[in-house]
Amino acid sequence: MIRRREQVFHGWGEPGAGPALPDHADAWLREHLGLEGGVVEAPVDLADVVLGELALAARVRERLAAVADVRDDREARVLRAAGKSYLDLLAQRAGECTDAPDAVVAPASAAAVADVLRICNEEDVAVVPFGGGTSVVGGVAPGRGGRDAVISLDLGRLDAVLGVDGQLVRLQPGLRLPEADHALRARGLTLGHFPQSYEWATVGGCVATRSAGQASTGFGRIERNVVAVRLATPLGEIGTREVPASAAGPALRELIVGSEGAFGVITEVTLRARPLTAERRYEGWFVSSFAEGVAVLRGLAEDGLAPDVARLSDEAETEASLALAGRAGLARTLGRVRPALLICGWEAQMGVRRTEARRRLRATRALPAGERAGRAWLASRFAGPHLRDDLLDRGAVVETLETATTWARLPALKAAVTGALGGLHVGCHVSHVYPTGASLYFTALGRRDADDPAGQWLRAKAAACDAILAAGGTLTHHHAVGRDHAPWLAGEDGPLGVEVLRAVKERLDPAGIMNPGKLLVG
Amino acid sequence: MIRRREQVFHGWGEPGAGPALPDHADAWLREHLGLEGGVVEAPVDLADVVLGELALAARVRERLAAVADVRDDREARVLRAAGKSYLDLLAQRAGECTDAPDAVVAPASAAAVADVLRICNEEDVAVVPFGGGTSVVGGVAPGRGGRDAVISLDLGRLDAVLGVDGQLVRLQPGLRLPEADHALRARGLTLGHFPQSYEWATVGGCVATRSAGQASTGFGRIERNVVAVRLATPLGEIGTREVPASAAGPALRELIVGSEGAFGVITEVTLRARPLTAERRYEGWFVSSFAEGVAVLRGLAEDGLAPDVARLSDEAETEASLALAGRAGLARTLGRVRPALLICGWEAQMGVRRTEARRRLRATRALPAGERAGRAWLASRFAGPHLRDDLLDRGAVVETLETATTWARLPALKAAVTGALGGLHVGCHVSHVYPTGASLYFTALGRRDADDPAGQWLRAKAAACDAILAAGGTLTHHHAVGRDHAPWLAGEDGPLGVEVLRAVKERLDPAGIMNPGKLLVG
């Protein structure tokens, strides 16, 4: 019942698959992070993972098994015990799964999801919805909220394309993004949604976490493409109408998008898909500085001319990327000028946009890095989480975080977060641009504190969250709130704003069984 | 304290100003609606309006006067007694203002708004926020919700531009749209938001009612341009962060947009503005049929090539428009082919979009009506409500209603609404297009039932609402819910969805003083 294809429990992707850190990376890792090179700590075997005692009463298990597939073997529980954050992987690699769910429950229909929620509500069992399991904010951590038992509600069997009408596609939530794109290709369509987690992320998970993909500058974040959504809650269903726009009061759709399983389970999504195009074009530029690149991107975005993908690495990230890509010679040459690498991608209707972007970049004396750089970026766009496994083997601390703010506040926000992550090697890029501002995506690398690896990152992360809120950023541009950001949500939404979300939760999930501790502090 | 410029209490615009129905209209009105011609019923004088007794305790009035301007003279109360729907105007013209508010309270700052709400919450006085007063769905009806007293909270003094940073503009809610555009023009900006109520509508009112403007196909509905918003509630303030995008859980912003004064009062809005452009171009086409025009618009919208303004009148509306515009000769000529008039407007970056729209229209053998038709539409874009006053004088029933749905459901929705309005002369146009669907805007005209004018329209309207929901439309694409659509909201959002909105209201406004009976049935 669990999908045939599963990620390895202690890392990213299928066992042994995916790109690996190249040999020439060692020099850079030694010089900048003080890593020795080679594997210093390997993950444990599945057989050695430590699980907690099963806490689901046999009677409840029987009730659930009557409406859905239920598994509670070692493999199933371990595979649903955590997401894919640095701290998740540290724990999984060490075999620490005492919090693993008591069962993995996989219903086959929206009606069966509703049945599972009804039973869990009656039996006071916590429910953690599970789509792709790619959360990096503790979104699928098996929180019990004080209860004895928790189940992982696996949506993998709800993976059908329910209908296509023009660009309107009705999908089940457990469909993985590549599966959705594969099914839509025959209709000449694509979702156009490419988060770094693309290979494993599900449609429902993207909607539940307010996802953005790498091409969302052009195609829009997931919420821009959600036409309608259905949510099963412990007290019944909410479905929003399948209409292109409405003035019928507050948008319930926008309350469900981003609800992260805390209000219920998304059982159906109607999305706007995009026509497939053949003219995709990606290219790179070396801009004289990050600030100069930001100015160009701001101008393009304000004028409605932004590329569909716009990624501007700062000087530190540019240098590290080139070195890790084996282009140390180029890095040394460029080292004297410390440029910022800009990747521009056009997926469709590039005409005037590409011409104008090139004209403006040339006017700043940016150096074209050509389509070779664009192709290199495309080839490695999903590589990050694979390489992370190698870095974890080598004893690194490696994590990312992201935010967004207005153009005016961007420089101060970048400086504040970089400062908060002091002690780590920090690279940053603009990942998405908007007419009114942009996102910043940070990668922090360092040598793992062997004595207190979790504390080392938790302190850095807390300082970064504080800095983001103080500098006028959002807690998260596309990683969601989960368990990890929940303590800061009142800083984002204000105390009364959080009270409103709590009121919604109490109305839909009065017993508090839905994804305890996520979004709202328990 | 109330603004210097006010609309006439029984109609639209300033007394005597605005376009009037031309003489040649009489023939059409006689033939199609059976109207005799000439004024059959004039509005009463202000002195003859019947008001209710003042119900606000002197002590409460004093408390309010300490934090805001307070007026309770005849003129102030009558001017805040109703919006501008057909039924509102019928009552105002007849001088029926027994429900007028007990005072018009105008605070001068966001802090003073909060003070007013606090006092009203303590004293159990109902509060009806009042921006431009242009609601056509009973949104500013002075509902008491069972209380003795109700005030109109006039936001006219909060009319400042608080800041401009690039395309990000921070505005107070009481700013009227022309005032906002005038202030922004010096910065080379416009809001690009042009509802038919443009002359009087306020920024806060547009946000509170989830407004769309005539150019929103290109510039986006108001919610697409709201970056952040502040809401004063009886229990305190909610402010959303000024960021271009966020994944920090459900979007509270989208809960405040469209809240119609039922949760609190919008005290500040940060919007994305647009650069002014010089190249505006509008033109008309006679398409061989409404269905053919819909097909062209769908194709353009799906391909990202829609004009910024796209208005496609059906055959009946085209015929009536030409006749009322004094082009009866043309109407007779065209009468044999019964074409559908399409107005396409490009506000900026028209290049490939206009070329492609023209190419596709020519391919359908559509007849160009040229820029003359475009200019005529632009010249009369805000004329409708002015002409309505003349129709009311002549004894007509005249009202509009609107909806939206997916492209596939559009023909059946149009037929269902037209059928529901049986007995009236119904014209319809597509007013906004989206990649996944379009809006339909209906104008219903007829001879007023002298014995039961309100009942005549209420029955037609109820039948139309039922038909819309049954045919998969939204209750309203841009008129909002107000009092008039509130009984149908459970049909739109479902019973549990409405419960969610009620939970939000109860958390922010436990006493229920905010705009009673609007959005949610009292």
List the helices and strands and how they pair.
Two copies of one chain form a homodimer.
Chain A: H1 25-33, E1 50-51, H2 58-65, E2 69-71, H3 74-79, H4 86-93, E3 96-97, E4 103-106, H5 110-123, E5 126-130, E6 150-154, E7 161-165, E8 168-171, H6 177-185, E9 189-190, H7 203-208, H8 216-219, H9 222-225, E10 226-233, E11 236-239, H10 253-256, E12 265-272, E13 274-275, E14 281-287, H11 290-302, E15 309-313, H12 315-324, H13 328-335, E16 340-346, H14 351-363, E17 367-369, H15 370-379, H16 384-393, E18 396-406, H17 410-420, E19 425-434, E20 437-447, H18 453-470, H19 489-508
Parallel strand pairs in A: 1-3, 4-6, 5-6
Antiparallel strand pairs in A: 2-4, 7-8, 8-12, 9-13, 10-11, 10-12, 14-16, 14-17, 15-16, 15-19, 18-20, 19-20
Describe the structure.
2 copies of one chain form a homodimer. Chain A is of the alpha+beta class. Chain A folds into 3 domains: 44-154, Uridine Diphospho-n-acetylenolpyruvylglucosamine Reductase, domain 2 (2-Layer Sandwich); 161-275, Uridine Diphospho-n-acetylenolpyruvylglucosamine Reductase, domain 3, CATH 3.30.465; 281-465, Vanillyl-alcohol Oxidase, Chain A, domain 3 (3-Layer(aba) Sandwich), CATH 3.40.462. Chain A has helices at 25-33, 58-65, 74-79, 86-93, 110-123, 177-185, 203-208, 216-219, 222-225, 253-256, 290-302, 315-324, 328-335, 351-363, 370-379, 384-393, 410-420, 453-470, 489-508; strands at 50-51, 69-71, 96-97, 103-106, 126-130, 150-154, 161-165, 168-171, 189-190, 226-233, 236-239, 265-272, 274-275, 281-287, 309-313, 340-346, 367-369, 396-406, 425-434, 437-447. Chain A has a 7-stranded antiparallel beta sheet, with helices on both faces. In chain A, helix 12 (315-324) packs antiparallel against helix 13 (328-335) and helix 17 packs antiparallel against helix 18 (453-470). Chain A is globular, with a radius of gyration of 23 Å. The model of chain A has no long low-confidence stretch (mean pLDDT 95). The interface between A and B is large, with 87 and 87 residues.
